[in-house]
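Deviations from the work plan: none for this task. Representative record:
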Amino acid sequence: MVRVRDNRDKVAFAALFTHFAPRIKGYLIKSGADATTAEECAQDVMTTLWRKAEQFDPTRASVATWIFTIARNRRIDMLRRDRRPEPEDLPWGPEPEPEQIHVLEMQQEAARLAQAVATLPPNQRSLIEQAYFGDLTQAQIAKETGLPLGTIKSRLRLALDRLRHAMK
Amino acid sequence: MTQPDITSPSGTAIRHHLNEATLMGYAAGTLPEAFNLIVATHLSLCDRCRADVQAYDAVGGALLEDESAALADESLAQTLARLDADPKPAGRKKTATGDFPAPLQDYVGGDLDAVRWRPLGMGVKQAILPTSKAATARLFLIPAGAAMPDHGHNGTEMTLVLKGAFLDGNDYFARGDIEIADIDVQHIPIADVHEDCICLAVTDAPLRFTGILPSILQKFFRI
């Protein structure tokens, strides 16, 4: 990703594309898009990544996380859902050059989090997925699954606690 | 959520924060527009909730890693062909000066002096902001020392203080603080006596007024 950002390297872009475009497409299909729309939107997301590459800050987010935020915003447009304003930039002045140690920390945290997500118990995992992909609020998940809202809240909390624990 | 003091970018201590479900919904992209607006406005003032949203974004990133769907044959070639055609990106998001953070200024069309207030009686004023119908966002001006009309809720109401402060029971809410009132809360926020209180309030259902404003007028005032 840094090579895409700093060198406008299309070979590096192609490698990112090969890894992430199928994932973005899968995410959009799970969110309710048909295959054709999901294909188009996945290409849009990767094109946006190329255009906005200079905004990528490896001390703040992993590549997967950054791509998720672009894909999420594209999904909101695609489903013609509600606008989602972003917070303003922090008034901290110009950012210093990212230190390699922070980049490494972020990568390690992302890897631990991915591992923790992959090993969540199935009932917690499926609720997290519905919360992110199903476009449902907790109350709507309750209606859909027939589970009491309290159960959903406590399972989601358990899942998040596990994820938090993994980040420590 | 009530937590120990932390210092916000504006230098004041924020004591009342967003809850988990709302932060997660914002990261997942499932909230109505009015709630997205109040979250973005609060995050502009609150480092802690901003960091929490980044963590929820990271959960989204981890979930994305596990997805997969086969691409069309020409997918990469088509995308590569588009790269050079796209215009250069716009600059980074701006940082606002004034009472309103940038996302709120976008909806108002300016800072506090640009708000088009409508009187609600007893000196209280409101301005409804243009959002989707799934939820309502409006600004309130409550004169110093005055009470908001006594009301309960049919849904969730969030109130973010932008200027001045209000008291609700024993809790004190100042700039950046957010109060979350659920369906069972019957509450009477009272503006601090030192200055008029300006806040952004978001509801996902009409309020139930029990006091000065007859409910027949609710539709008229859209509150």
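Chain A touches chain B through 76 residues (CB under 8 Å).
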